[in-house]
Amino acid sequence: xxxxxxVAYVVTVLCSVATSSAKESVHRARxxxxxxxxxxxxxxxxxHWCGNVSYKVSGSSCCNGNITLGLSQLVADCCGSVAYNPLxxxxxxxxxxxxxxxxxxxxxxxxxxxxxxxxxxxNNIFQWKENHSCCGEKTYDETxxxxxxxxxxxxxxxxxTCCLKAKDHDKKTEHQPGSPPTRPLPILSDLIxxxxxxxxxxxxxxxxxxxxxxxxxxxxxGDAYTLSDDNVLCCNGILHLNVPEQSECVGGxxxxxxxxxxxxxxxxxxxxxxxxxxxxxxxxxxxCNGHSHNKMNGHFCCGSEVYDHHNQFLKCCSGHLYNxxxxxxxxxxxxxxxxxxxxxxxxxxxxxxxxxxxxxxxHCCGHYYYNTSLWSCCAERLKPTPKPNSxxxxxxxxxxxxxxxxxxxxTVFFGKVESVALENDMRHVLLKVVWQVNMKxxxxxxxxxxxxxxxxxxxxxxxxxxxxxxxxxxxxKPVLLSQPVDLTADIYMLYYVCYQKKG
Length: 503
Description:
The chain is mainly beta. The strands form 22 sheets. The protein has a five-stranded antiparallel β-sheet, with no helix packed on it. It starts with a helix and ends with a helix.
């Protein structure tokens, strides 16, 4: 009885914390670089279609109806019918080449560096020289000649008539003396909706669909609606039209004064709960994404399935349940995929977890896998300035559920990031301890405030207002363990599992 009383008390405290934290939460749009992809989503967000074949975007890509395995569509671009990693490769005339620099660009089928060469026409590469520019397929010295359109580009002496007419135009387009022609570098954080970039001040993205933004316009799954619309109700991401007045969405079910049904198919009795299109008794059953299961089979949902957390051969990875009975060796989650061997690596951030084939001199930077000769990484941010001797994080942050039950034997705490300050190469984090309990002694820390100093570039980014799982190492220094936690679900599961194990 004491165990369940303790759990109830913990849950009560955490629920109150979750209520206040919910007001501060910000939903991030998932980053994507899927220009040219034509895979269509069907049903679950895990399943897409590429032609007539289903695939998962977390581990494969679809280009012109062909699937590329081993590279997630979330971080890839298409080169014809093959996907490639634009961080480390470049597509020139349908051929995938290994980048020699972040300043590499295509000139026809060849690659060149914008810092040392210029591309004239479609496929002619010349070494960059001061005061030289392109004129069609050639270069010319701007101090002696000009480029005239007659009607095709042709080089003429600057004293000729056409040069005098083109003089003003050349002044507008010439490069500053001593500066090589450059191009803007790709910004990895561009807001993308589906395969299009968009301006959030003018447009809004609803699950890959763009709509005109306004103060009254809201998203409901992939649809948009305005608050002034009559007889419209958004219920669990599904937009319902022509619903009766005074209808309400409660727990994914539309309740109306005279007629309440479970997904328009079953009428629940007074006090009964809906689970998909059927009713269920929450005392004996559990509802997982619209599917009812007997509680004897488990108390936790994994997608639409239920599982027993005591069963060491079952592992839940972001809503996908895996049976480990026939696997040899240790397996861990990488998003909704299962990482089983050392030939692959999982790179993760708070928004994505992506699996890659391991390559020499490549490291993770958040959910990106980069070539250290091209890029450097600082606090999960890529920079086109390689630093071979720079430090890198020796571990990746994991979802809290992936850390259970190994955390049950440790003293861990949930720390909310209140503020962050930068000084030289150090990041100073002010933490407010939301809850700290040693599962063995149940000793609660007295001082709720902690000051943590981290090497800025070698540690993952931490966001103000987000709560993370931390552990104090043998030196008493807090170590960051998890991605931002869900105060209403993940933390409850940690306490439930650990207190049961203790009991």
